[in-house]
Design brief:
Length: 424
């Protein structure tokens, strides 16, 4: 099937023609591009067109597409059986690598980032005997009911349902505060500290586009919840093993850490980790129930262990920093020459080009970006063979398979597209 035939067939099978909403390209006014295969920094559609890829499966593919060590590990594991419903050596190998790199006492492997955050919240509620969760506006932590909330009318209010099918009573157990606002966090705990079980946060916000945390905000996260007996949940599903070998290093007092993406080598995975005292509240030792038929799947653990082995000496991260800086500098120059209102936010190998005059500091300022302008930019880049995430509010990912050749080609395409957009 060609691109059009694949998209048409998908529309008759899947709601909206996709199995995850952002793949529909609706937010950029486009049509889905069905991808047949990936190789290194490139993806190829069903008609053989090649694109420089900055989606990277939305984060896991830090080594690029189909890296040989990961592919070989999956092939070996598949030949020995795809699932057992029993403890396997592969789980121990992956868990040991995660624990060694992060310093976490205990790890529980699950199947997705959503499962990880859902379990972390349940664990925090059991440990504290409290019900209320605090999250930050624009932060995405998976699609469990209690996390699909939006901010209420005040600066520090309980959440309102942000999805059909989520009962208001469930959403009302989640408070939504502005990101990068330590005063709002302090005010919330002064009023509701005794009710609050946990605060969940991405150390670097990656789901409103890339938004960097301010030092005062990080300090407040590290001190205020702990002072009130609440658990700080660090959602490192994106940041874990993406910016450095292990955790982001930005939060020092997280009681529970959620991981995913990179630790699965491109296969479905999630994990939570923390102290032995807290994690041993999980069944079968403790009263907090969590289970998964395919948790610790042998293909996933083999891929994840192979991936982490490639990251162990830090050379990949040094290379990613070089490539990320190169792309940031090139895009910034292209923006300046086109005299458009746009800015680039980067940390390591992750970045976002916002069509607003300066970097945002929270979701409210991120929403000021001109999404219709980004849609034009996205279409222009796609025409020139560059595959960007199909939303202004998604993060671009550079992989270690990219080279200066791909970065330079991307910057050249950006120069051409931005110049065209600047012309009256």
């Amino acid at each position: 099937m060609n691109n059009a035939e694949t998209v048409a067939a998908a529309r008759g099978l899947f709601p909206g023609g996709v199995n995850s909403p952002v793949r529909s390209f609706r937010s950029v006014g486009g049509r889905p591009v069905p991808i047949a295969r990936g190789e290194g920094p490139h993806v190829f559609d069903t008609e053989g067109n090649r694109y420089i890829d900055y989606i990277g499966a939305f984060g896991p593919l830090i080594l690029g597409h189909a890296p040989a060590p990961v592919v070989e590990a999956i092939r070996r594991a598949a030949g020995e059986g795809t699932a057992f419903g029993a403890l396997t050596p592969g789980e121990v190998e992956l868990g040991s690598r995660i624990a060694a790199a992060t310093g976490l006492d205990r790890v529980r492997l699950v199947n997705s980032g959503t499962e990880a955050t859902m379990t972390a919240i349940r664990l925090a509620r059991a440990a504290t005997g409290r019900d209320v969760l605090v999250k930050f506006d624009g932060g995405y932590h998976g699609h469990s009911d209690g996390l699909l909330v939006k901010a209420g009318s005040g600066v520090a209010t309980l959440g309102l349902s942000d999805s059909a099918g989520v009962p208001g009573a469930v959403a009302a157990l989640t408070a939504v505060l502005p990101y990068n606002d330590p005063d709002a966090l302090e005010a919330w705990f002064a009023a509701h500290g005794a009710e609050t079980a946990a605060v969940i946060v991405e150390p670097v916000a990656g789901n409103m586009g890339l938004v960097l945390p301010e030092p005062a905000f990080l300090h407040a996260l590290d001190t205020i919840p702990q002072a009130h007996g609440a658990v700080l949940i660090a959602d490192e599903v994106i940041t874990g093993f993406r910016f450095r070998y292990g955790l982001s290093g930005l939060l020092q007092n997280a009681g529970v850490v959620c991981l995913g993406k990179v630790i699965g080598g491109g296969l479905p995975v999630g994990a939570i980790g923390g102290t032995a005292a807290l994690m041993d509240l999980l069944a079968p030792l403790g009263p907090v129930y969590q289970a998964g038929t395919l948790s610790g799947n042998p293909l996933v653990t083999a891929a994840g262990a192979a991936m982490l082995d490639q990251l162990a000496d830090g050379a990949v991260y040094r290379r990613l920093e070089e490539l990320g800086r190169h792309l940031e500098n090139g895009l910034t120059t292209a923006i300046r020459r086109a005299e458009l209102e746009a800015s680039v936010v980067r940390r390591g190998s992750a970045l976002t080009l916002f069509f607003r005059s300066g970097p945002p500091r929270d979701y409210a300022t991120a929403r000021e970006a001109a999404t219709e302008v980004f849609a034009r930019f996205h279409a222009g880049m796609l025409e020139r063979g560059v595959m960007l995430p199909p939303s202004q509010f998604e993060t671009w990912f550079v992989s270690a398979a990219h080279t200066e050749r791909e970065i330079d080609a991307t910057v050249e395409a950006a120069h051409a597209v931005l110049r065209g957009m600047a012309q009256p």
